[in-house]
Amino acid sequence: EAQVTQNPRYLITVTGKKLTVTCSQNMNHEYMSWYRQDPGLGLRQIYYSMNVEVTDKGDVPEGYKVSRKEKRNFPLILESPSPNQTSLYFCASSFGFNQPQHFGDGTRLSIL
Amino acid sequence: GENVEQHPSTLSVQEGDSAVIKCTYSDSASNYFPWYKQELGKGPQLIIDIRSNVGEKKDQRIAVTLNKTAKHFSLHITETQPEDSAVYFCAPRTPLVFGKGTRLSVIA
After folding, report:
1. What is the separation of C-alpha A31 from the centre of its chain, rounded to a whole number of angstroms?
2. CA-angle at B31, arms to B9 and A98, nearest 5°
């Protein structure tokens, strides 16, 4: 089954404790991206990757890191999480720009 | 950058009625116009899309219409059912920019 898998689905942690949210897709997509979803603000892109070893900033990259060492995986790293990063996060993949996006089911992060 | 506006932000309709959501964009170079549906606890899922060389596309009860001159496209849902209740997003600059979403409630 074609899917984008995110882990964990839920996480409560404390300020400053490094965390990683994993994302994996099995559709051989070149393009992957991370979004955060906040009430009233919709989906905002954090980082994206057009292919292995190629990443770029989206609209809200501050406080986040990503890596793309393999085509299927695109982890999101919060080196020193802060409460304003409490949000619902989505990973997505596609064959490229202007192509249908496939989303994971989301990761709800709470930073205390 | 791309300016995307989606209206209305909330919409309540009676079961069986039609619903229309409009998305306005600013980038005249946009050529792909998708709509996504997000159900509670899930990620957005593509429900219909259209490319700029087509004015309208229909899939059962769902249709998308495009007015490239006026820079807007709309989602039309006919004969609404309770399972249509969800948040709907347009994304005229996929995958970079999404609309802020429309919460549709279908009242049985």
Report:
1. 12
2. 85
* Cα–Cα distance measured from residue A25 to residue A4, given in angstroms and rounded to the nearest whole number: 4
- The two three-digit tokens of residue B80, written as one number: 């609404």
> How many Å is the maximal CA-CA distance in chain A?
38
Q: Tell me the C-alpha distance between A111 and B9, whole Å.
A: 28
* Minimal CA separation from A35 to chain B, in Å: 10
Cβ partners under 8 Å of residue B45, min gap 6? A103, B36, B37, B38, B39
Q: Scanning every residue of chain B, which has its alpha carbon at the shortest distance from the alpha carbon of A40?
A: B100
Residue A25 token pair: 């897709």
**Contact residues, B window 24-83, toward A, CB-based 8 Å cutoff:** 31-32, 34, 36, 41-46, 49
* Nearest to B72, CA basis, from B32, B7, B22: B22
Q: Give per-residue pLDDT as tens, A38-92.
A: 998 899 999 999 999 999 999 999 999 999 999 999 999 999 999 999 999 999 9
